[in-house]
Prior knowledge:
This protein is an alpha+beta fold. The chain has helices spanning 4-56, 59-62, 67-76, 81-88, 116-123, 164-211, 229-279, 284-312, 328-345, 364-380, 426-431, 439-449, 475-479, and strands at 91-94, 100-103, 128-133, 139-149, 152-162, 324-326, 349-354, 360-362, 387-395, 398-405, 453-459, 463-471. A hairpin with a 5-residue loop joins β3 (128-133) and β4 (139-149).
Amino acid sequence: xxxxxxLIRQSALLLMAGLLLVFSVLVYVGSEALLHRFVDGRLLALxxxxxxxxxxxPNIIEKSGEDFTLAAEMSRTGHEQHDLQExxxxxxxxxxxxxxxxxxxxxxxxxxxxxxxxxDRVRHGxxxxxxxxxxxxxxxxxxxxxxxxxxxxRYILHAEASMLIHRETLNGLVLxxxxxxxxILLVAWxxxxxxxxxMLKPIEVLSTGAETMSEADLGKRFTLxxxxxxxxxxxxxxxxxxxxxxxxxxxxxxxxxxxxxxMKTPLTxxxxxxxxxxxxxxxxxxxxEALINNLEQVGRLIALTRSLLTLANFTSGKPPVRLVPLxxxxxxxxxxxxxxxxxxxxxITLSFESHPVPLILGDVQWLKQALINLLDNALxxxxxxxAVTVRLQADGGGVALAVEDTGHGIEPExxxxxxxxxYRTDWARAKDAGGTGLGLPIVKEIAEAHGGTVSVTSQxxxxxxxxxxxxxxxxxxxxS
Length: 480
Ligand code: ADP
């Protein structure tokens, strides 16, 4: 696993190395250009001074060998002595045809053998600079300057300067830049390590806290003493996740408590019935009665388990629907057909009124489940001789699927709570109609997962209407 700390370190180091490299190259190239200009400038100034002297005293050249005269002359022009000495190492005066007419005080050990092309260019009045390596490998800068008299190039002045100091200076600069860069990289390595440690400290605190946290610590919240906004936001986000965990833990615990309680009731009744039945010898009629009673309780347990399993299929508390374009009419028709036998058995008239409705975006399995829950209740809470009607019709911007019964109805005070988990009306409990109190909450979750709602209207002793309102998809939702 990659460590963020070493990533920060490596990135800082790479960035620094890149910057140093660019900086060093710029400094080197700039220094080299400046040194070149400096050497060339000095050579040119020297050569131009000499050229002026020669132009004013052409007989100096004629007295070949009397270089001291020229030296004295140059001193008079105010040049520094060290310039002169440097120049005297390297001054030559050629005739335009390439003969050496004069050489400096100390002379040049080897006369340069000027290139023909160079000489040609100088003869045409151009000043030429060139760098040539001497036999010992030292780079030498050469300057060829034409000296004109009466408009004609009479002499070619050659001055040269060793570039050894120039090269050594550049070598020194390279050494300096290398050592400096190395030192900076070392500091950057240590500094970025320290910085990364400081930056990641709050994250370490959070992760250690999270690792050592047990279920009993769900009520704990992190306080991070960091001046940085980002870490405060991270801590807030972490704490809000903890809030959600705690809340969902509490909901789950409450849910388990109620579920256990709901299971306990039929199990206790089952146990009681069995105890009573086994207490003494019973007639077969009495045993039959006890078994029928127990069967009801088993039925209730099965219904409860089924609802709990449905809830267990929820992901993050919601039914995991897969929405596809769906025609509701055939789906409703199938379910009504399936339940007609049960309705007939209970002597309830089950009918389906269908009006043309557009396609909706829905999950057929989950919508079937919702309708079955509503129909199951309607058939459950409607006495024999009653009627249950399923009505499918367009409703405003959506589709309404209503289940209407002529049953007992629901008292107004219960209506706001019907969709809460395990909520059952007093009448239903007293009647021990075998419900679980989970059917309607599941319908509500399914409706909401489809972007819809579920509503109820009811009148005691007249009946109830439960309506699923589902939205019609817009062009955008169909194609997205
Ligand atoms: P149950 O399994 O108890 O029916 P539900 O969540 O489906 O659980 O319903 C919750 C309560 O709402 C029921 O216990 C009952 O009191 C009431 N109820 C639901 N549907 C009807 C209905 N059609 N007529 C009368 N009461 C109903």
